[in-house]
Design brief:
eight-stranded parallel beta barrel, two-stranded antiparallel sheet, 7 helices, 31% helix
């Protein structure tokens, strides 16, 4: 069964809805320039209220390793998702110092974009594929060519598929790519800081193959 990650959650009510609707992962964005940025205190308070079956993921962009490690430990994050220009060595250091799995994000513009992935094969646990929008490290709401995601599976790591997914296209994306997980932020929002219950419910149901 394809897993679901609802990303860019900014408040406790939305986080609990994500859990109650049956997603496996909830993402908290610590990137200072994101419209969905949360503070360490808020994330810690929300995560403390989550049931144990849902895994909180921290999203970071070119963060100092020591600051990332502090945030992971203070909040109780279970995975770290890296959306910047972090090197394989950086990813290994994060994994070693936090003891949690690492997701490395790649912005996919064309087939040449896939050439960036192989150096990370032994450095991270998962790859996340997102649309390439210059100057924006994810959360763009743009779709990329899913044929490239299919090719990226050849690198041998579980794939989180992101980029413009919505309740209307997630079934087609899963049918085409067969990813490990699907990742959505703007596609289930009514405002950048608030999720939409019906959109989340429909997204998760369709990711499960339900109507």
């Amino acid at each position: 069964m394809v897993k679901v990650k609802i990303c860019g959650v900014t408040n406790c009510d939305d986080a609990l809805l994500v859990a109650n609707l049956g997603a496996e992962y909830v993402g908290f964005n610590f990137f200072k320039d994101s419209p969905r940025k949360v503070s360490v205190k808020l994330a810690k308070d929300v995560i403390a209220k989550l049931p144990s079956f849902i895994l909180p993921v921290g999203i970071f962009v070119n963060e100092e390793v020591r600051d990332l490690v502090k945030t992971v430990k203070k909040c109780g994050l279970k995975m770290a998702q890296l959306h910047g220009q972090e090197s394989p060595e950086y990813c290994r250091q994060v994994a070693a110092e936090t003891g949690i799995p690492v997701i490395k994000s790649f912005a996919i513009a064309d087939e040449k974009s896939l050439e960036l992935i192989p150096p990370y094969q032994q450095a991270v646990n998962y790859f996340l594929l997102d649309a390439c929008v210059p100057g924006t490290p994810g959360g763009t709401g743009e779709v990329f060519n899913w044929e490239l995601a299919v090719k990226a599976k050849d690198f041998g790591k579980p794939i989180f598929l992101a980029g413009g997914l919505t309740p209307d296209n997630v079934s087609a994306a899963i049918e085409k790519v067969q990813p490990f997980a699907v990742d959505v932020a703007s596609g289930v929002e009514r405002l950048p800081k608030r999720k939409d219950y019906d959109k989340m419910k429909n997204f998760i149901r369709r990711a499960r193959g339900l109507k």
